[in-house]
Amino acid sequence: MLDILREMTPPTATASGTTTTVTIRLDRQTTTVGYRAGNTLLQTARLAGLHAPSSCEVGNCGTCIAQLTCGSARMLNNEVLDDDEIADGWVVTCQAIPTSPTVTVHYD
């Protein structure tokens, strides 16, 4: 089950440890990369050389939304997704900080 929370402070560790890897599905390719503490999912994708969609980068436009299929994340800001979408695993990746040891995110 996904645990997606909206909080104002980014976590640095979880009860089971720090985030170590992020798997990103984008343009029919899957890339798994090491996670650098404090980065958002969007920043992680960029550091991996991926061209993930983005625009405003403050959680207002929804261009960077993606779905978590494994793991959890906390959004620092969200002006786009409603509670049902969040419950279904959708996150604003420019504002989503991983909170589980591994995370898998799919961009449509």
Automatic annotation (TrEMBL):
Keywords: 2Fe-2S, Electron transport, Iron, Iron-sulfur, Metal-binding, Transport. Its cofactor is [2Fe-2S] cluster. InterPro entries: 2Fe-2S_ferredoxin-like_sf, 2Fe-2S_ferredoxin-type, 2Fe2S_fd_BS, Beta-grasp_dom_sf. It comes from the Bacteria. GO terms for molecular function: 2 iron, 2 sulfur cluster binding; metal ion binding. CDD domains: fer2. Belongs to the 2Fe2S plant-type ferredoxin family. This is Ferredoxin.
